[in-house]
Design a protein that fits this description.
Blueprint (H helix, E strand, L loop, with lengths): L1 H8 L12 H36 L3 H94 L1
Organism: Dreissena polymorpha
Main location: membrane
Membrane topology: Multi-pass membrane protein
């Protein structure tokens, strides 16, 4: 868990990394925003629960001791829940980023393949047209030579 938090809070900022990948920048922003929102919501809920528990339990002095125990248990549960929620959020964000990267790579590969196929088809068509033009020109020259030779033989 500590390594995950270190990765979240110590990633280079986009303005510090001149060669930053836009997907990494997006990942940093999304991770920080999601983690902050989740932590704030969990802390607010736990504080409200703590206040309600403390107010209800402090009716009698003996119950104050029980309230302290309950608050300690709630805080421990809060820390565990926050750690689990942060870990789940980080994993989900990483999976989403990986899926986006895979989709982008697949789209780029498909575009490159289509461009290569189009270029190959254009080159083949140009070669065929050039060959046809050369063949037609040679046939016309041969016909002219044959006509000239036949005409010369008849004279």
């Amino acid at each position: 868990m500590k390594n995950v938090l270190v990765q979240i809070y110590y990633r280079p900022l986009a303005y510090e990394d001149k060669k930053a990948n836009p997907l990494e920048q997006m990942e940093n922003v999304v991770v920080v925003v999601v983690v902050v929102v989740v932590v704030v919501v969990v802390v607010v809920v736990v504080v409200v629960v703590e206040v309600v528990v403390v107010v209800v339990v402090q009716v009698v002095v003996v119950e104050v001791v029980i309230a302290v125990i309950v608050v300690v248990v709630v805080v421990v549960v809060e820390v565990v829940v926050v750690a689990l929620v942060v870990a789940v959020v980080v994993v989900v964000v990483e999976v989403v980023v990986v899926v986006v990267v895979v989709v982008v790579v697949v789209v780029v590969v498909v575009v490159v393949v289509v461009v290569v196929v189009v270029v190959v088809v254009v080159v083949v068509v140009v070669v065929v047209v050039v060959v046809v033009v050369v063949v037609v020109v040679v046939e016309v020259v041969v016909i002219i030579v044959v006509v000239v030779v036949v005409a010369a033989d008849e004279k």
